[in-house]
Amino acid sequence: MGKLSEPRKLSIRVAPLEDESMDSWLETLARRCSMSLPALISAFGLPRIDRTHRLVTGLTEHHLRQVEHRLALPPGRLDQAVVPGDLFGQRAPRCRFCPECLTETQGRWNLRWWLPWTLACSRHQALLHLVCPRCGTTPRQRVPGQVHLHRPARCLNRAARKSSVCGADLGFAPSLTLFAYHSLIGVQQQLDAIPVHGHQDPGSVFARVDALLTPVQHGRSGQLDRMSPAALSTWERTFDDINDPASQFYGWRMRERAHTALTREFLHREYDENKKSLSQLAVDFGLPYRIVIERAKELGFTVTAGSRPLTFDDRWLREQYVTHLRSTRDIGKGIGISEGPVKRRLAELGVALRPVGPYSRKEMIARLDESVPGDIRAAVEGTTHGWLRLRRFQIHMALPSLAASSAYLGVAGNSLTRQFKQLEAAIGAELVHRAARHAPQRPTLRGASLLRQLDEPQARELMQHALGPDITPMPSTAHHTDAQHSRAGPRGRRLQRQERSPDQARPGDRAPGAHPCPSTPASAPAAPFRRCRPGDLCDADPRPHRHPGPHPLRPTPPAGCRAGANRRTNECSEAEAATSTPCTP
After folding, report:
1. Per-residue confidence (pLDDT) for residue 570, from 0 to 100
2. Which residues contact 276 (CB under 8 A, 6 or more apart)?
3. What is the mean pLDDT of residues 332-342?
4. I need a labelling partner for 292 at 20 to 30 A (CA). Which of 94, 249, 433, 520 fits?
5. For the chain, which domains are there?
């Protein structure tokens, strides 16, 4: 038996409809032949295709002539079923659909539904659907398999690789009808008249599309009346697809805007003379950075990788680093660059760079004037926080204890102790007599001298300049009094309550002589005094002692009080007052 001289022709044939897409016609033919679509594609000798849009944009002229010959179609007939891939770019196109058209044509898909600017059906005056109403995915993404097992116009997407197909009838999707005389209907009729078959120049097609779509996009806010919520959502998503940065149409639009805005004169003034970066120009005009670079190269401007070469004022740079003792990081931050180029330029000028780290900071290498007292200079020079330690030492000496200073400054006590030891080590003398049990802290002779030096106008001005507006204020007299009373213990707190004026009273304070029990009337007679017990403190002698006479701070509760008053303070607790019999005057 001899070899076949040419491929056999297919006996079962289906003629493609006018404006039907290649993928739709092959699917109808496979369903008519009761075979899967991949098997039909392989039988025609076409390459293996996984994505449906490749049947519309990826077939060569040789493949089209081969299929026409196998089906005895007129040469060039299938050219009307495909569009050039140059119209889409890197982004895979998404197919929209009109439910009424699918129902009328028994599941045949229009070629123009693949075009990104086909937004509505001018025949049924409705927006095209973007996704399946059941599974929410874009239809016709992958080449379906067993199409002969499903009826036409069904969604054949799969949620997972081995799951069943969606199977929704897209012909019954709700209609996204537009109101009569909507501006998009007339525009869509003109868009449908633009030829896209054959070897059309993408630029000429995009120019005509842009001229028609721009007025609709600018005035789309006034087109939202009488639209259903589903139509409004589809309307917004449709224009988002048009402005997709990965689409070829969007790239053409941005290049046209760059040609109009970025002229040679403009780039010479802004890029060369004013030293504006191309990335800044891209932000100013809302253009992609790559398109701005393309436009600059097209006009002959030199575009370097990274930042452009820097130019320094050498005299200014040396003055800032050597005279004003600014760090390289501070200089770089001031002119909007990193410290690396600053260091390299200083090395080229022969300037010795300071050590890396805190030893190159201005406060570490700065020296105070000789008129400043020696103890202040010893505490500040060669350190980063000398003025802060001196300020905290001033505050510490104005308060009676380390605990009061810690509470006022919001710094842990052990941290303050460490800072004061660093201050004493820098000056070389002890500055503080620590607080004892019955004696507050006080400065030594050297510490008192340092405090007097810090009170001088010159020292106050230097400290204010070093610490800035966030300098901690000195504690007030009221704060100092509260600290003194807090240090004196319970007796000091009682004296503090008695010394308060009526407008300074706090919750829990009571008038002198008032009984602590809340059930006792305010008119109850004053109670007799009790005698002192061992360990009590009296005003006559602050030391612990035995006192045979009446104690002025311990009144005896009235007769008949069974509220359970505390023996040492004569104060009834809330639980006792709530459960016991009220006081009887």
Report:
1. 42
2. 270
3. 84
4. 94
5. 22-230 (no CATH), 314-365 (no CATH), 374-481 (1.10.10.10)
